[in-house]
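Structure, all two chains, one model.
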Amino acid sequence: MASLNVLVLVCLGYVALLFLVAFAADRLAATGRSTWLRSPLIYTLSLSIYCTAWTFYGAVGYAARSGLEFVTIYVGPTLVMIGWWWGLRKLVRVGRSQRVTSIADLISSRYGKSNTLAICVTILAVISVTPYIALQLQSITLSFSIFAEADPNNSYNEIASVFWVAAGLAVFAILFGTRNLDANERHHGVVTAVAIEAVVKLIALLAVGIFVVWGVAGGVTDTMARIDASEIGQWNIDRGRWATITFLAAAAFVCLPRMFQVMVVENDDERHLRTAAWAFPLYLLLMSLFVIPIAVVGLDLMPEGANPDLFVLTVPLSQGQQGLAMLSFLGGFSSATSMVIVAAMALSTMVSNHIVMPIWLSSRGSGASVSGDVRSVVLLARRVSIAVIMALGYFYYRLSGGGAALAAIGLIAFAGIAQILPALVGGLFWRGATRTGALAGLTVGFVLWLYTLLLPGIGGEVMPAVVMENGLFGLSWLKPQALFGIDGLDPMVHSVMWSLSLNAAAFCVVSLFGFPSPIERLQAAQFVNVFEHSAGPRGWVGSVAQSEDLMIMSQRILGAREAQVFFHAEAQRQGGRGHLPEPTPMFLQRLERELAGSVGAATAHAMIGQIVGGSSVSVEDLLAVADESAQLLEYSSQLEAKSDELSRTAHQLREANEKLTQISLQKDNFLSQVSHELRTPMTSIRAFSEILRDTEGLQPDEQTRYATIIHDEALRLTRLLDDLLDLSVLENGQVNLNMGEGMLAEVLDRAVSTAMTGASREMRILRNETNERIPVHSDLDRLTQVFINLIANARKYCDATAPELSIRVHEVGGKVVVDMIDNGSGIPRDSRKLVFEKFARVSAERAGGAGLGLAICREIMQRLGGDIIYLNGHQGAAFRVSFPSGYQLAAQ
Amino acid sequence: MSRRVMLVEDEPNITEAIRFLLIRDGWEVETHADGTDAVEVISSAKPDLVILDVMLPGKSGMEILTELRARDDLQGLPVLMLTARGQSRDRDLAEKAGVSRFMTKPFSNSEVLTAVRDLHAQATQT
């Protein structure tokens, strides 16, 4: 019997070997001499992490319990590999062109870089995969315990052993997975180690199988006879379970974080998928070949109650085959470790990128931009994440007690991770899929999976028996294993049916009713049409033709001469002749920097990328270009606004200048008018006073007449000066209104009597005194002045033989309206606008006025809050004076 | 030798004053108060001298002067212009239009008489 110590030593040695292999592979990859590392064979073998300890040990147990149903676990991935390799190719292409680091990153990237989605997928993955990791711990511990039972010298502590296994695997994963940070998230060392483990587990299982068939059962014929005799050889097919589990296995094969890691992230060349399409199903076939024989022989050989999950180990041991048992143990150990390492790596990438880093960055504010700083933080986050994930697995194992059958835990995990499928497939093939749709689908599926499968699966402590029996809140249609009253289904089938169908339905419906944001549309186009947007797997080949294109482009941006000088200098620097340098990376970098000075870094990068080919323009590039253009646009619109403002200012200045010129002209005209109006009476006064002084023998009547003229003209002068002063005061707004109350009739009485005093001509005034009983609150003297002016004008200018002036008063809307209409020939239509201007004189007749009266009236009425206008539509001259009655104001 | 003066002025008191002065000095005085038909009136009356106001209703004194100077028979007619708008610009305009003498209101009576006599003498000598 091999002692436990020997076993531990073998394990440590095996791990050390794997570590050396991984180390060597990394070194080789770094030096670039690693073509064989990138072979399709390694890729195919790395895919075998699909076969975990669950498959290695559990498949035999599964077969021993449920017969041929275990085959479904192999059929699912086989169907995907053979029937859906084109879908995988799209997935790989998208993953490479978008440089995704995990399945959470892929989903988030597809749906507009939504970190919420990434967090959802990450949490879902952690919750699904944690039991799965616990499962691996359990399998290793169980296999240890088998050897421990056989070694009487050792006191074996199961709990301690699980802890040390978990810790060991964590260290292993940290050492392998986070030794350095590769931009592409590729780990050649890990992949190579995984490939070697794949070979070890295949050889181990095949060896046990061959031993069982030829060493125990006595050949193929005897084995077949034993199988025929056994119950589990019957094709006892439960169609619902078969279809469901096959589907789940297929979905898990695509969606499991560790599968995504090796299949998409670690993929070096999408052509490897072609090899894997036949080689991986072959691997699965070989892995499943001896499952039934081992199970049948195990059931025959081993005592009643022996754990069929461990037949792979116990059968050789029972036959005294220590070496074979040791090999088998190593096979199981390989299955468990490879799964745990890759799963922990994949999960830690998701956890650190989507949960830890965003929190750290936001807590650091904007200060965290030093790359070296971030780098160490990322590494630390990954390492801590791995440790936490392993700890979660350990505690799950401790809590669940490790009693549940391995296969059941595996299937629960499959069903959980399959909830990602609708969002993943929809994202790859349906442009209309939206972020909210994906979020809705994921949430619905996750909750249903939790409620119908995971929680009931854990046991009575988490999910009370009352809920199991009677449904949540006593609602029978919410029974976890009989939703909506559909009873009698296998719990697994029931859960998968409801969770996935409602998940897909929510995803589709919400997507259809939602509206994708611009970045989602961009990403959708990039994902769905990935084969049009990205170059094939060919490498980049520089050519002079590209240099020409670069030259043409640069001339447009830098200017013809500058571009030529730059290209020529670069060509000389490269030591070549001619004007076109080779498009070496160094040259491209310098050109990019040169162009960035003119068009911005992102645009420069995108333009060179377009010409040199190689990589397509990513959405980030496009968005950065858009940002730059937006900045340029903003800048130019600012310039435009400035120039608009300038021209507006210039316009205003021009207008102000014109106004000033006009005002100055008006002032000149006014002064000229004033001068004329002053000089005219002064001329008469001077002329007649000289006549009176110088003329001898003037007749007394002549003397009287000339003295009268002088007197009248002096009065005219005074009047004129009074008017000018009045107008000036009114125009400057310096007038003090002397508000008072009175009846309109009284105001009009006073005006009429003043205006008609000393009149040489008779004029009839027509009034309706009853209408004039309107109380007025205003400056009554000023109001009277306006009416006097109008009545006097009518008296002077009305040319009718029997002049009449009718004064009509009415009140409308709080306004008093006074119309004064004479029966003369009125004012010509084209002069009506002018009558209110200063010195405006309409008639040819001199009437002794300077033409300021109506101008003064208008100023007064405006001061009183009213107006005076010429009233069209009358035969004679008609003026309308209106002003607020104001008695309400006075009443207050 | 005729001494006929045509006075074109719209302000009645000024017209009366100048008329009184000139008649006393032995001139025949015709008066006209409107600018509109002033050229025709002058042309048909054929005075020896014209006293012309600038601000006239209908047509300004400047226009009347320009029209008078445009006619062959009235080119040499002496025109004494009186203005109440004391602006130097008006003097320039009047001299360009061919005014014989330009005076600003208010004037002294003797100045007007002297001007009329001088202008008439110049016109008859040539």
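Residues 619-694 of chain A form the longest helix (76 residues).
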